[in-house]
Amino acid sequence: MSQPEAPPIRDACDADADGLITLIGGCFAEYEGCLLDVDGELPELRAIATAFAGWGGRFWVAEHGERVVGCVGLSPSVDPGGVELRKLYVDRAFRRHGLGGTLTDRVEAEARRRGAPFVDLWSDTRFETAHRFYARRGYVDGGLTRDLQDRSASVERYFRKAL
């Protein structure tokens, strides 16, 4: 299979809702029992730019043609001074070609621009491939988990990278 052309990345807008829902829903569908309940659990997907701006954050999408094939955001972390990487998702056809790294680079560059000394993230315990990706990029498993008590019975692991 040939490597897909690197898709352009831009700041997200609220009109990206359908594309984000399709992308994230597709990623969730790869895991048994992982359900996307937009209105009940992730309503921010309906107006992503507004939501992240309201949280003091930023959100990006990668597009191939008219289709959203990747996304990532950041917001201030719970621990003062840092940022939290949020919602890193890449369409299956664009994985292992550098898009996840490029999106993560955006978050880390924005974190540095803001003077943040670290980036935190939480990732579903089922997303083991993502955990290996984060470890290769210098994120350290903090040994903490949290139960979201959502429809997917999600339990997330905590990671941090010092900048």
What does it look like?
Helix content is 29%, strand content 31%. The protein has 163 residues and is an alpha+beta fold. The chain has a domain at 9-116: 3-Layer(aba) Sandwich (Aminopeptidase). Strand 6 and strand 7 (155-162) form a beta hairpin.
Order of helices and strands: EHHHEEEHEHEE
Basic shape: globular
Shape-level CATH architecture of the domain at 9-116: 3-Layer(aba) Sandwich
Residue share in helix: 25-40%
Task: Determine the CATH topology of the domain at 9-116.
Answer: Aminopeptidase
The low-confidence parts are none
Helix and strand content put the structural class at alpha+beta
The CATH class of the domain at 9-116: Alpha Beta
Strand percent estimate: 25-35%
The radius of gyration over CA amounts to 15 Å
Tally of DSSP β-strands: 7
Instruction: State the fourth-level CATH superfamily of the domain at 9-116.
Output: Gcn5-related N-acetyltransferase (GNAT)
* Overall pLDDT confidence: 96
What gap, in angstroms, lies between the N and C termini? 35 Å
Sheet bearing the most strands, described?
7 strands, mixed
In short:
The chain is α+β, with helices and mostly antiparallel strands and 163 residues long. It has helices spanning 17-29, 38-41, 48-54, 99-113, 128-136; strands at residues 9-11, 58-64, 67-76, 83-90, 118-124, 140-147, 155-162.
